[in-house]
Amino acid sequence: MPVLNRIAAFADEMKEWRQHIHANPELSFDCHNTAAFVVEQLRAFGVDEIHEGIAQSGVVAILNGQGDGTGRTIGLRADMDALPMDEITGAEYASTISGKMHACGHDGHTTMLLGAAKYLAETRNFSGRVALIFQPAEENGGGAGVMVDEGVLDRFGIDEIYALHNVPGLPVGQFSTSPGPLMAAVDTFYIDIQGVGGHGAMPHDTADPIMAAVGMVQAIQTIVSRNLYVRDDLVVSVTQIHTGSADNIIPDTAFINGTVRSFDPAVQNMVIKRLQEIVDGQAAAYGVQVKLNYEKGYPATINNPSRAEFACDVAEGIAPVERDAGKEMGAEDFAYFLEKRPGAYLFVGNGDTAGLHNPAYDFCDETAPYGASFFANLIEKSMPAIK
Fold first, then answer.
1. Nearest to 367 by CA among 178, 164, 136, 81
2. Dist CA 83 CA 271 (whole Å)
3. Please, are residues 65 and 128 in contact by the beta-carbon 8 Å criterion?
4. What is the pLDDT of residues 115-160, one digit of tens each?
5. H helices then E strands: how many in the chain?
6. What are the contacts of 84-90 at 24+ separation with CB within 8 A?
7. Which secondary-structure segment (H or E) carries 23?
8. Closest C-alpha to 243, from 278, 281, 213, 286
9. 77: helix, coil or strand?
């Protein structure tokens, strides 16, 4: 059964929800209008509890199944925030707000969870409870981590937690994931170099920050090639170098910025140590002053193997599933939930669309019923109704 019949019946309504959210994007923690729209739908569905203002604009709704309310509680999460970029799709429902667009499909993720909520509120064909989590600030700010810090998991007694993300290029409705490590931890480093500037014709009177920056960038590239065991996973990328103002001026300062992606804390710590050694050594070599700022970001997204296997079993009743898709070096703040509770994060195909974070991207509305059916089936199979 590819899609639950009842969910297929209100697919057009889901499309309207999604396109409304798409036309009205909001950034980071400022998802108040999106949250208000979500709450309006949840009230119409007749959910049992609605809790607003979590992580500023997040929403948690509770659905009670059959029984005495003493069963398990399973969390289902969708992210709501958009990206700070202009849309070029030309769609009738394109973003109405300059500089903001849903270029990662969070409008679709929210819609899939709303669709599951509508179905589950109508049928109640499960025991225990469902916590429907609508989260802000996945793209910037780590809204999942803020929700965890605010006690969402304990407050609502959540025992397990699951989420979906769409994938362009994967056939519509097809699922994929991996047991264990799925997405990398993401860190950022900043290097400020203070030299002594001067005339380009008199470099002997300067402490050239450009040469120091070049030396540092070249040395940083050896961390992966010379300090890492070949079977470990690591990306270290320098993504910005800023310095200089004219062809005949050696500047005073230079700035280097980059990203680090890893899975193993030991590898992460090795990178931090080597970066400090490199910048200190190059500073001494070129006679400049250097400050390294290393910021740890989202942790690695690591699925609970048994929960990932179960989620794949559920998904297989809906569409084809790739159970061991391998790891990727992108990052996801759902990792904060998975650090605290068993669960799984799955991908669902968005068809032949533009890539994520692309101004031409759009969520495929045909994908939403598959995601909603997955969430609904997962609840019914995890917590069967009492006969």
1. 164
2. 29
3. yes
4. 999 999 999 999 999 999 999 999 999 999 999 999 999 999 999 9
5. 12, 16
6. 84/27, 85/357, 85/359, 86/359, 87/359, 88/359, 88/360, 89/359, 89/360, 89/361, 89/362
7. helix 11-23
8. 213
9. strand
Task: Please report how the helices 11-23 and 106-123 are oriented relative to each other, as an axis angle in degrees rounded to 10.
Answer: 140
CA angle 266, 298, 151 (to 5 degrees): 115
Render pLDDT for 155-197 as a digit per residue (tens, 0 to 9): 999 999 999 999 999 999 999 999 999 999 999 999 999 999 9
What is the sign of the dihedral through the CA atoms of 178, 76, 55 and 35? positive
Domain ranges of the chain: 5-181+300-382, 185-296
CA–CA separation, 336 and 344 (whole Å)? 12
How many Å apart are CA 117 and CA 114, to the nearest integer? Answer: 5
253 vs 107: CA distance, rounded Å? 42
Residues 146, 152, 153, 154: is their CA dihedral positive or negative? positive
What H or E segment, with its residue span, contains residue 277? helix 265-286
At position 113, the amino acid (one-letter code) is: L
Is the pTM for the entire model greater than 0.90?
yes
E strands present in the chain: 49-54, 58-64, 73-79, 129-135, 160-167, 175-176, 180-183, 185-194, 198-199, 234-243, 249-250, 253-262, 289-296, 301-303, 321-322, 343-349
Q: What is the DSSP track for 209-256?
A: HHHHHHHHHHHHTHHHHHHS-TTS-EEEEEEEEEE-SSTTEE-SEEEE
Tokens of 358: 């692309």
Superfamily of domain 5-181+300-382: Zn peptidases (3.40.630.10)
Give the CATH architecture of domain 185-296. Answer: 2-Layer Sandwich (3.30)
Rounded Cα–Cα distance for residues 270 and 156 (Å): 38
CATH topology of 5-181+300-382 equal to that of 185-296?
A: no
Main-chain dihedrals φ then ψ at residue 15, nearest 5 degrees: -60, -40
For residues 278 and 102, give the distance between their C-alpha atoms in angstroms, rounded to a whole number: 39
